[in-house]
Amino acid sequence: MSSKIKLLGLIIFLLTAFQIRAEITFTPANPIVEMEGQIELSVSGTVGALRWSAQTGWIEGTGTIVTYIAPSQPGIDVVTVIDAEENVATVKIKIKEEEIKEEDFSENLIWEVFTNRDKVQALALSRDKRTLWVGTNGGLEKRNASTGELDRIYTKADGLPSNIVNALLTDEQGGIWIGTDRALAHLKSDDSWAVFNTDNSSLPSNAVHALLSDTQEGIWIGTRTGLAHLKAEGSWEVFNT
């Protein structure tokens, strides 16, 4: 009898030790995304609640479908998912630089740029109350504040870092600060540009979502990865939240 009990115990042990683990599958299997871009990830074959993590990027959402947000540097990131039975799976994500096509065009060509500006994401009124600035998903609009008549459109062709405008802030000198998904820009009253990004400044992220005056001619900048303060004399403070 004791030998039968031992045999039964051995069988149970072997079944437990060599049980078939859940096979977790990622979609897409070989994801590629641009720096600070987004991509949807989904998994199948999991059991119960899931825990997601990324080495350098960010995960938004829960469950079997989430959004991955890439960091501001190119390279390889690793995303891990663990289910309720401690089954673990990983996928490597390639983070590439933004593709810029360099072509040789004649300086005599005249270009017309057409962008979709149906989504308004930010509004700002000039200090003299004459100009209404409109930030859209297709560039920056300059309008008459009284009539709403369109005066001019600024896009990447004019010096805007990106056509996706998230935040606006006017200044006392008649210029405007523009927060985009690629950099912070300052359009001065003489139509000259200054652009700040993670390469040439202390900006914590190129994705700028909020702008606020500090009442001393400096500005507060809300980004995807932290808060920054650009003082009037040009120095920076960074607060990683």
Topology:
Layout: H1 2-17, E1 25-27, E2 32-34, E3 38-44, E4 51-54, E5 58-60, E6 65-69, E7 75-82, E8 88-96, E9 120-125, E10 131-136, E11 139-144, E12 150-154, E13 165-170, E14 176-180, E15 184-187, E16 193-196, E17 208-213, E18 219-223, E19 226-230, E20 236-239
Parallel strand pairs: 2-8
Antiparallel strand pairs: 1-3, 3-6, 4-7, 5-6, 7-8, 9-10, 10-11, 11-12, 13-14, 14-15, 15-16, 17-18, 18-19, 19-20
Averaged pLDDT: 86
Rg of Cα set: 26 Å
Specify the helix fraction band.
under 10%
Shape annotation: elongated
User: Helical stretch count?
Assistant: 1
Level-1 CATH class name of the largest domain = Mainly Beta
Order of helices and strands: HEEEEEEEEEEEEEEEEEEEE
Explain what you see.
The protein is mainly β. It has two domains: 23-96, Immunoglobulin-like; 120-239, YVTN repeat-like/Quinoprotein amine dehydrogenase (Methylamine Dehydrogenase, Chain H, 7 Propeller), CATH 2.130.10. The chain is built from one helix and 20 strands. It has one helix at 2-17, and strands at residues 25-27, 32-34, 38-44, 51-54, 58-60, 65-69, 75-82, 88-96, 120-125, 131-136, 139-144, 150-154, 165-170, 176-180, 184-187, 193-196, 208-213, 219-223, 226-230, 236-239. The strands form five sheets. A four-stranded antiparallel sheet has the order 1-3-6-5, with no helix packed on it. A four-stranded mixed sheet has the order 2-8-7-4, with no helix packed on it. It has a four-stranded antiparallel sheet with strand order 9-10-11-12, with no helix packed on it. The longest helix is centred in the N-terminal third of the chain and has 16 residues, at 2-17. It is elongated, with a radius of gyration of 26 Å. The termini are far apart.
